[in-house]
Design a protein that fits this description.
single chain, globular, 568 residues
């Protein structure tokens, strides 16, 4: 039986005494995007045997940096045949932290359905949900949603689409389908400063095993604090800080090539129109893929660059409100050794510059009720080169009957999705057709809210509502089947979701658009580069124009392609 913990957080007045004397740092006042690559590599260099599993979420202005999970689940496709079409089976690799100072873990592999994995996560979350823990008390003082103790990770599009239509055998990409971790050691902005970072280590004192784990954790936190002290000192050097803050200086241009030519896109568009005219769907989200390779560094070691190296430039360019990054070490789950000189060689990396919120879950501490908010995007226009042109494009989006019709379709789809989990009469649409402006495009955004039924866990809502309607079409099941046929290549994580779910059921998840994926290379020494992929697309209706839809794809990822190629 799983113990129910009593949580304490280091560095807080209502927690147990901290094992470390310092729990906050300024790190040279670097932005989080500039800090992330340096922090990750610094920690690997300090202790390459530790089980670091980095994850960063922007959290709409409340970033969190997960360092080392207590437990993690990575989900993969498997050749094992399901007992019937409604219950596909996946390989779920579960890592339970056994040792802080080495890459030693208690790793188990189970074969289970999507629903069984969901039930395991819900049971785990309920065991760690205590209203009296100190993280909740601290969180209650903050107005913005933020991570304080729970699960962080992603769930990909492929696995969610497969679950919608198992009989269609939608292809799963050769990479993790999903990955979630219980992050009890993490960094978050310090409460008393605009630029400092605070280390959180949540103690779970409820059993003899937990007590042993917490003692080892205390010892590790002392070491981790010394690692962070050293990085803080290094980044505080003014000259070094200025040199390292030039976030594009150490990268090499990466050119991604479109999988489809304009003619290929036209053919896929025409086939989409055939399905729409036949009444299969009202809207289908058609996407296309750009591919390339991460180059090797121009030095004696010839190690490949990692996707994380491009994070600073991409985030500075996009300023995406729901950005995120994580890496999943495929070497650690298949039993092969990891060389510290090449920490990303076997890793799957996910880097999102997403502007789109999927769900925000909040919990009312007084009534104990869960509420949900979603803001689907449907409708896009580029930014103008002058203020006058920019305002003109924005007004065109405001006046676009086609975009309003598409937006309403997705709003209705999401209202229907939430209706399965919401208290009767609580689903509301407080805002329709709002225009939100980003670095490269204007978007039409609507807002939907609801109150969840008392017996519904937020994780069930998240799992049951994937993939998001804004990136599939309507009706959703038929749309994902047509998408699989027309795109003829798996999306992987793209169009899935990334975010966090606190154990109290509060959380925030994005839609994984404007998202890059990089797969780890094999052990074959002849493999010199790591593949990297990027997608873009849009909702197609009978009123859509092929040239305009094709241009919309370019508008959505043009700045990302330019940043990677170092043209901006």
């Amino acid at each position: 039986m799983m113990p129910v913990p009593n949580s304490n957080i280091t560095g807080q007045t209502n927690s147990a005494p901290s094992p470390a004397t310092k729990t906050s740092w300024r790190f040279g006042d670097l932005s989080v995007a500039d800090l992330i690559p340096q922090l990750q590599r610094h920690l690997y260099e300090q202790n390459h045997k530790a089980n670091w599993q980095f994850v960063w979420l922007n959290n709409d202005g409340r970033p969190v940096i997960g360092l080392m999970p207590k437990v993690s689940w990575s989900v993969y496709a498997t050749d094992q045949k399901p007992s019937n079409d409604s219950n596909p089976v996946y390989r779920v690799v579960k890592n339970c932290r056994d040792n802080y100072s080495t890459h030693s873990e208690n790793t188990t592999t189970a074969y289970m359905s999507y629903l069984e994995w969901q039930h395991e996560l819900i049971a785990y979350s309920k065991a760690y949900d205590t209203d009296s823990n100190s993280s909740n008390n601290i969180n209650s003082k903050r107005t913005k949603p933020n991570y304080h103790h729970g699960l962080i990770g992603f769930i990909g599009y492929d696995i969610a689409a497969y679950e919608l239509s198992p009989a269609d055998r939608i292809e799963l990409a050769n990479q993790p389908c999903a990955s979630l971790g219980h992050y009890d050691i993490y960094l978050t902005p310090a409460a008393d400063t605009d630029t400092g970072w605070e280390l959180k280590s949540i103690q779970t004192n409820s059993s003899s095993n937990e007590a042993v784990d917490n003692k080892a954790k205390d010892e590790f936190i002392v070491a981790l604090t010394s690692y962070l002290d050293e990085l803080d000192k290094k980044l505080s050097d003014k000259y070094l800080n200025q040199a390292q803050s030039k976030h594009t200086s150490h990268t090499i241009p990466v050119v991604l090539t479109a999988r489809w030519s304009k003619r290929d896109y036209q053919q896929a568009f025409d086939r989409t129109q055939d399905y729409l005219q036949q009444g299969d769907c009202y809207q289908i989200n058609l996407t296309q893929k750009w591919s390339g390779y991460l180059p090797r560094k121009d030095d004696a070691n010839q190690q490949p660059l990692a996707l994380i190296d491009y994070l600073p430039a991409l985030h500075h360019n996009t300023k995406a409100p729901f950005a995120g990054y994580l890496s999943v070490d495929s070497a650690s789950v298949d039993g092969t050794s990891v060389e510290h000189v090449d920490i990303f060689n076997h890793s799957f990396e996910l880097l999102s510059c997403s502007p789109e919120l999927f769900f925000t879950f909040t919990k009312n501490k007084v009534t104990d009720k869960h509420h949900i908010l979603t803001k689907p995007i449907k409708g896009t226009m580029p930014r103008g080169s002058t203020d006058k042109q920019d305002e003109s494009y924005k007004q065109q989006l405001v006046d676009s009957e086609k975009d309003r019709a598409e937006n309403v379709m997705i709003v209705d789809l999401l209202r229907n999705d939430l209706g399965k989990y919401a208290k009767i009469g609580s689903v509301k649409v407080p805002q329709l057709f709002a225009i939100e402006s980003f670095s490269n495009v204007h978007h039409m955004v609507s807002t939907i809210t609801a109150e969840l039924k008392t017996d519904t866990h937020p994780l069930a809502v998240l799992f049951g509502s994937l993939p998001a309607g804004s990136i599939t079409g309507t009706p959703k099941k038929r749309a994902v089947e047509i998408i699989s046929e027309l795109e003829s290549t798996p999306r992987g994580a793209y169009c899935g979701t990334m975010g966090y779910m606190n154990f109290d059921g509060s959380g925030q998840w994005n839609v994984l658009i404007r998202t890059l994926q990089a797969n780890g290379s094999s052990n074959n020494a002849s493999v010199k580069e790591r593949p990297i992929n990027l997608w873009a697309g849009g909702g197609i209706t009978v009123a859509s124009d092929c040239d305009a839809e094709y241009q919309e794809c370019l508008d959505k990822v043009g700045n990302l392609l330019a940043v990677l190629a170092k043209k901006v």
